[in-house]
Specification:
The structure is a homodimer. Chain A is α+β, with helices and mostly antiparallel strands. Chain A folds into 2 domains: 3-143, Alpha-Beta Complex (Nucleoside Triphosphate Pyrophosphohydrolase), CATH 3.90.79.10; 145-220, Winged helix-like DNA-binding domain superfamily/Winged helix DNA-binding domain (Arc Repressor Mutant, subunit A, Orthogonal Bundle), CATH 1.10.10.10. Chain A is 27% helix and 29% strand. Chain A contains 5 helices and 10 strands, in the order ββββαβββαβααββα. In chain A, the strands form 2 sheets. In chain A, strands 1, 2, 3, 4, 5, 6 and 7 form a 7-stranded mixed sheet that branches. The A-B interface holds A 1-4, 6-11, 47-54, 75, 77-78, 80-82, 85, 87-91, 93, 138-139, 142, 146, 220, 222 and B 1-3, 6-11, 47-54, 75, 77-78, 80-82, 85, 87-91, 93, 138-139, 142, 146, 220, 222.
Chain lengths: 224, 224
């Protein structure tokens, strides 16, 4: 049998973009302007063109629907259950990106609206996008425990308190300060800088992720 | 635009099956009996049927081409570069399985032959299957450092020496005995049994992976 003998599924890409903002994890969603699920919120995404690589398709859809570009995408998982799309057999390759600042967004293309949503206040999503989003969050929580992926969510320099707070937000639970500091030191992924943050109380030293730790994460490209 | 307006890619699944055998990592390959790459070795796999979930397709292809069934599959990565298949645009969802014993295999369907290959002696593979295989091995090496995935490759009970040897084979480098034992203890993933292995020298205690550690890996289902 050749490839042409088989009825073919459609292939889409979907992109989960996560940031830390206002002490919450937030995700970028678009309001659909087309059937099916017209008027429903969804993760940005769309059909892969026949002459387009998967990641290129993910970047194009993200740019068209939200105005966001230049983010570091990693493949997350491919969702291919039967019945996940009312248009027929549609297999979706999902991507994930962690971004530091709350990026400005502009709705376009098939999106009527685009905005950041706190993950605790999500609307019901189109297709199986709630499931895709939950998968992304689970993966993020799992990875952050042993990998310096946090560097993608933090500013360049940060206090240890701010880093602990970020971990607490991502993991959804309070962490013991002494344990957190011991573990982050043992992981050898951050280093002190010569600068201090002055706010209330005494000045707190600023840290940054080590270049070699970041390079290692990037080299692996095994999300993220 | 609807799904029907787009020319559609074909979608395949490919399955990388890895075992530890004769003190080497080995992978199950089939010799293709069809064009393209007829007579070349490849990872087992084939087209996803329109009414078939992705993992079901991976299981079916594996069973048809190699006789292997009842393995624990995890999704690895989706390969969709342009030009990776001479038949046209073909996107492949790759799966991986780690199996403990060297399973018996029987060639069938589109496979003329099926056998285990030591990863140090691989033939040139069809399509981008060398790349898929390298991706699988990199992922395995990365995961084994912080996760008890090794339980899928080991017999139920094993000596610490045998476990260290398995890690050395997978990582491709010798490990310091004292460091290895300290780290495996700290990870809290194995526990001693009441039985001993008697061979040369004094009897060595047998260990097993802890049930809760295995359950945690299984619950995550984030390879493997």
């Amino acid at each position: 049998m050749t490839a042409e003998d088989y009825p073919k599924p459609s292939v889409t890409v979907d992109v989960v973009i996560i940031t830390l903002r206002d002490k919450e994890l937030q995700v970028l969603l678009i309001k659909r302007d087309l059937a099916p699920y017209r008027g429903k919120w969804a993760v940005p995404g769309g059909f892969v063109h026949i002459d387009e690589a998967l990641e290129a398709a993910a970047r194009r859809e993200l740019r068209e629907e939200t105005g966001v570009s230049e983010v570091y995408l990693e493949q997350l998982y491919t969702f291919g259950e039967l019945g996940r799309d009312p248009r027929g057999r549609v297999i979706s390759v999902a991507y994930i990106a962690l971004v530091p600042a709350p990026l400005a967004v502009t709705a376009g293309s098939d999106a009527r609206e685009a905005r950041w949503w706190p993950i605790g206040e999500l609307p019901p999503l189109a297709f199986d996008h709630n499931q895709i989003l939950q998968y992304a969050l689970t993966r993020l929580r799992y990875k952050i425990e042993y990998s310096p992926v946090g560097f993608r969510l933090m500013p360049e320099k940060f206090t240890l308190s701010a880093l602990q707070k970020a971990y607490e937000i991502i993991l959804g639970e309070p962490l013991d300060k002494r344990n957190f500091r011991r573990r982050i030191n043992e992981a050898k992924v951050i280093e002190p800088t010569d600068t201090y943050h002055s706010g209330e109380g005494r000045p707190a030293r600023l840290y940054r992720f080590r270049r070699d730790a970041i390079a290692e994460v990037k080299a692996r490209r095994l999300f993220p």
